[in-house]
Amino acid sequence: MPGRLRAVTRVGCAARAVRWLGPGYGRLARVTAPTPALVELAVAHGVATEYWDWQGKHVLVSSEVVSAVLAALGVDASSPERAADALAEHQLARWRRTLPATVVMREGWTPWFAVHLPHGSAAEVWVDLEDGGQRRDIPQQDHWVEPEWVDGVQMGEATFQLPGDLPLGYHRLCARIGGNPEISVSTLIVTPQRLEPQKLHRTWGWVLQLYSVRSRRSWGIGDLHDLADLAAWSANDLGAGFVLVNPLHAAETAGRMEPSPYLPASRRFANPLYLRIEDIDEYGDLAPAERDRVRALGLQTRVLNEDATALDRDTVWAAKREALQLLFGVRPSIGRIAEYGAYCDREGQGLIDFATWAAISDLHGPEWSKWPEELQDPAAPDVVAFRNENPDAVEFHCWLQWQLDEQLARAQARARSAGMSLGIVHDLAVGVHPDGADAWALQRVLAAGIHVGAPPDAFNQQGQDWSQPPWRPDALAATGYAPWRDLVRAVIRHGGGLRIDHILGLFRLWWVTSPERPTEGTYVRYDHEALIGILVLEASRAGVVVVGEDLGTVEPWVRDYLTERGVLGTSVLWFERDANGNPLPPERWRELCLATVTTHDLPPTAGYLAGDHVELRDRLGLLTRPVAEELAVDEAERDSWLNALRERHLLGNSDGDVERIVEALHRYVAHTPAKLVGVALTDAVGERRTQNQPGTTDEYPNWRIPLGGPDGGVLIEDLPNNQRLRRLIGSLSS
């Protein structure tokens, strides 16, 4: 199987491991195991040199992969000598800093921290609080640490203790050494112990891909008005408590728009494709000729709502962009001008950088790595000059984000006023497009030349390369985690909850060093106490629930930690089995989780029951064993669930009735203690086509399947009279 250690031999002085790299590579490849010195250096930087794969097999990581990952962290391990030098530099680095880059603590904790200063000097330490106050009760501890010679100066380490009653928030930890007027400053973050999901009332909600859910008023793509309408109807008529949508992150606005919502240009900002043109305030102030043109554009794109085979983002965006340009030219009222100014002030430089990237993309294309070199650095003088010379182009993209902010707020307000306990639950993707806005604006905190992915698992046996540059853990800490804070705050601003895709990435991420071979990678550790702590702090301030997608290869302690911090997990029926491989009884499922039957990486349940996912992967060449064997295993797994349904008297003599089986599976999930029960809208209308097949790009029309059922396309207006839908929702309480 991929990644499995098959044999170890001795060749000369170096241990070499022989590993099968997966089908298609044509041979057994020999890789050099890391030396003890390289292992020590890797461990110091949080880089794994070994791990356990999805089958419980121990895997050694090659020295080539380890060195490549270290290089992306700015560490030269290209030779034993340079690796030794790098380790020595790493060990001295903390002595060269007066204060740690960032200190993260939980409320009530009293952690120690180190202050480095010339041996024999005195330190004055205090905390400047977020609200403008100050705390000077920071006592020094009687804790001796041997001095260290650093750059010809003997440095000492003084230990101080933070008080346990510091308020939640982002503060400044300050130190002055001796009589030196210079003040050293680092970020101090005080986070809640946990969120309180136990107080959450049990409820159910839709899980859907918004772009695919259209109405007769849509411009060929589901939009934020559609979302608000669906939420209001579902709350009033069906008693739903939330709608979990795909990531609404920004995509390219020039050239071909990336269809995957999980490969965005920016995670902090949103996609103007989701704007409802007629809901923009300035629509009513258009001149007659311009309004006629906008209406004509709407009529042209509404024809696309009749196509139940595929979505056409590019045609829709071309029409919407033309309409938005006309609306941008309308002179707003003084109140609207003030509101826009307040939005821009709140978003600050991040908004300016995003809008600048978008404006340059309009001229040079969306791939910033192919721009003129003088425009590839957001702080470069030529970028500033471009902004000054093209103010309207930059302003247009700032204005688009303001419009999105308003419509997102309106959707959440309508959901809550209709009676939803949570409202809109947003989704946060793992990372961003390597040539997108965030990768350009935040390149100093991202690892160049590396992609995020996943090692082989049962459903993706060749591993995955998600093409996204990962955060650099060291660079994030150096910024006080500011990019992460800004991102989380933005995504949850207009919602009642947040789902974190692959939340395991806040603990460790699979860094792929060779895009052609996603098996060629290793795990890199992150400071989960900092990342999860900030997530909990922002969620607590916003009053939202957090759901972590914790599927896949999970270290056992990770789920315990997330529960401790009040973060809900994710339980998908097909994956919930006991230690013997049998379906997990519903009473043994987790309470603190979002429970569903399926996920967007699998076909809707009707398609899964038919084995569509196996046939599709076979057709695309993604299987690593014969299709007959795969189908047999898949059938056995499905039969085990059907037997479990019969044992619970949830399924009668309905083996051939797919609709009844789908209802029974959802009834099984409803019998669990899960706080949140998610129902895929595709299951409710009888859709079979999958939205996404991992491991493919254009081999399958990923993220381009409109909502449909057995009789063709399904629009929002069709839902109230859809008896299949009503029977399925009724099964949740029967």
From TrEMBL:
Keywords: Carbohydrate metabolism, Glycosyltransferase, Transferase
Pfam families: Glyco_hydro_77, MalQ_N
SUPFAM superfamilies per record: (Trans)glycosidases (SSF51445)
Catalytic activity field: Transfers a segment of a (1->4)-alpha-D-glucan to a new position in an acceptor, which may be glucose or a (1->4)-alpha-D-glucan
Domain MalQ N-terminal beta-sandwich: 99-192
UniProt EC number: 2.4.1.25
InterPro entries: GH, Glyco_hydro_77, MalQ_N
Top-level lineage group: Bacteria
Family: Belongs to the disproportionating enzyme family.
Official protein name in the record: 4-alpha-glucanotransferase
Organism from which the protein derives: Kribbella orskensis
Lineage summary: Bacteria, Bacillati, Actinomycetota, Actinomycetes, Propionibacteriales
